[in-house]
Design a protein that fits this description.
The chain is mainly β. It has three domains: about 170 residues, no CATH class; about 120 residues, no CATH class; about 270 residues, Neuraminidase (6 Propeller), CATH 2.120.10.30. The chain has eight helices and 39 strands. Helix 1 crosses helix 5 and helix 5 runs antiparallel to helix 6.
């Protein structure tokens, strides 16, 4: 829905509600700041709406109340003036936000007013996108107005901030909260929306302290000690780019390894904000030293926890003349293991993240083979060096490796998709509600191992869904949570030809607007993409591309492959250019 653009704003408010000690400002003057005061952050125009007008009737009063909730910076002091005196203290808009594209007000008997919201999107108290709770029907809210001091006032409204799409479009943007996977090896991004400008650091830290929702307890966790709160009103950023994070004293009672990961979460979360270069955690005004780093720590010092896995191989792999080859720069060579010397008839490939093992699906789709990329013995490779990790399949899709070296398989059987995870050479079944037993066209696994995105076909209609993966502390799969829709507003899911992770928080989607053209879309993983978000600077490709090849690694190229076997690369200008890759490379893939 178009409201998603506005929905961005809604989240910002939600983030504010994160902790008991951080809430939407209820009072205080709104101050104007200069661009210099804001350092490198985006300059926003302050707006202080007017309060209730004397003698106002119910409908105009409610209309002005809605306008009052668009105060910039975020502040509910004026909006509370429209409530009855006994309702003001109990109104908690931090519990969620509604973003609307249109609204109408209707006067009802006894001072009541019906508020109809059209094109609605909801956000939770963290600023997480929830989509349209009404499935396009719109929402009716009946507000009860009573006389208070001789004037109409709203009595006990819903505990939600209600904001128009236009406000969200101009004031908010998407950021990520960074938590850790269950093994503590890599950060996991969770998208939220908060206002740009001076409030962003405070809102993001407040949201981070609230920890992941209970529904994701088996997916991710936080190294911030439970009960930790912001010990102050804000997270100020100095002119030299240092964000000071005042926390309660729970952070003093943790081991060095936990403290290091807590700092990593804060650094990755705050490091998204323009102008923030360092963080300083304080307790009661005293800086907390990170062993080996000191008090002021640069936000780029935790690359080892990059959710894109900076340590992963960046080489491109493919099949040429029946053998697996690797391409680094302009050099193409066969791998040294059995896949490089034996023609095994592979139709698709997967390579583990350190590029030590290669897996391939046989041409008939019934078996999955695995072997070392290179042999250390120096002896000629034989079939004995190849392991069959899955046999008796029907039509196995391209495999995927997770960061633990486990291989994910989807077999398209007559009874629907069958999921398996290969660990230590043995395949074990995994039940994934919304995927198991369905017609799965293709799937991709995020590098942090916490998300599966699949293209599912129901009754001839295609759609994208995303599932979350629960694991134990060793990375072993415990379960897959039920899939939820990943909408492509303004795009035709039936035209999807391939998927790939472009960043840890977004997908590249290859679609075909027509038989003779191709287009690459970018999809936000929370499902909040608008038609404008989906479009990229990439020009329309005037040929039929059938394969999309990229990875979430920073600087990774984005390739498309045509049905005729030619590879094209997306240039910084948005144009598709030819590559030095010789035509005919089959099953091209990056590790993962």
């Amino acid at each position: 829905m178009t409201a998603r653009r506005g929905l961005v704003a809604v989240l910002a408010l939600l983030a504010l509600a994160l902790t008991g000690c951080v809430s939407l400002p209820r009072a205080g003057a709104v101050r104007s700041v200069t661009a210099e005061d804001q350092a490198d952050s985006d300059t926003l125009v302050d707006y202080t709406p007017g309060g209730p007008k004397k003698g106002s009737e119910p409908v105009p009063l409610v209309d002005n109340w809605l306008k009052a909730m668009t105060a910039t910076p975020l502040n509910t002091s004026v909006a509370r003036q429209f409530l009855t005196s006994d309702s003001r203290p109990g109104w908690v808009p931090e519990r969620g936000t509604l973003v609307y594209g249109s609204h109408t007000l209707t006067s009802l008997p006894s001072g009541k007013v019906r508020l109809h919201l059209g094109d609605v999107a909801a956000l939770d108290d963290r600023g997480t996108w929830l989509g349209d709770p009404t499935d396009g029907r719109g929402m009716d809210v009946v507000l009860n107005l009573v006389k208070d001091g001789g004037e109409w006032r709203i009595s006990r409204p819903m505990n939600r901030l209600v904001i128009p799409l236009t406000h969200f479009d101009t004031q908010y943007q998407q950021y990520f909260l960074y938590f850790f996977d269950k093994s503590g090896q890599t950060l996991v991004p969770e998208p939220v929306y908060v206002p740009r400008g001076l409030q962003a650091p405070t809102l993001l830290v407040s949201a981070l302290l609230k920890r992941p929702p209970a529904s994701l307890a088996g997916v991710e966790g936080s190294f911030v000690p439970r009960g930790t709160r912001l010990d102050g009103l804000s997270v100020p950023v100095s002119r030299d780019g240092t964000a000071e994070v005042p926390l309660s004293d729970q952070v003093l009672d943790v081991a060095d390894s936990q403290l290091n990961r807590m700092f990593a979460q804060l650094a990755w979360t705050l490091g998204q904000i323009p102008g923030v270069e360092r963080i300083r955690v304080t307790v009661a005004g005293t800086p907390v030293d990170l062993p080996g780093a000191g008090a002021d720590v640069g936000v780029t010092q935790w690359s080892e926890f990059d959710p894109a896995l900076a340590w992963a191989s960046t080489a491109l792999f493919g099949v040429r003349d029946g053998r697996v080859v690797t391409l680094t720069g302009n050099q193409e060579r066969r791998v040294g293991g059995p896949f490089g010397s034996l023609a095994l008839g592979l139709r698709s490939l997967a390579v583990d993240l350190p590029a030590q093992h290669v897996a391939g699906v046989t041409a008939d789709g019934t078996r999955v083979l695995q072997a070392d990329k290179d042999l250390s013995s120096g002896d000629p490779a034989t079939l004995a060096d190849v392991q069959t990790v899955y046999a008796g399949g029907t039509s196995v899709l391209r495999p995927a490796y997770d960061l633990y070296g486990q291989m994910w398989l989807v077999d398209r059987t007559s009874a629907g998709a069958r999921l398996s995870v290969v660990r230590a050479g043995a395949a074990g079944p995994v039940t994934a509600p919304g995927l198991t037993g369905r017609e799965v066209v293709r799937f991709v696994l995020s590098r942090d191992g916490t998300r599966i995105v699949a293209q599912v076909r129901d009754g001839g209609q295609d759609r994208l869904v995303v599932s979350r993966v629960e694991r134990d502390a060793k990375g072993r799969v415990r379960s897959v949570l039920p899939a939820r829709p990943l909408p492509l507003e303004g795009a035709d899911a039936s035209s999807i030809r391939d998927l790939a992770w472009r960043t840890p928080g977004s997908l590249a989607v290859l679609s075909g607007p027509s038989d003779g053209t191709s287009q690459v879309l970018i999809v936000k993983i929370d499902g909040s993409s608008t038609p404008e978000d989906l479009s990229t600077d990439a020009e329309l490709f005037r040929d039929q591309a059938v394969r999309l090849v990229t990875s979430p690694s920073i600087g990774s190229p984005l390739y498309i492959r045509t049905a005729g076997g030619q590879m094209f690369s997306l240039a910084a200008s948005g144009r598709w250019t030819g590559t030095s890759i010789e035509p005919g490379l089959g099953a091209p893939t990056f590790p993962g």
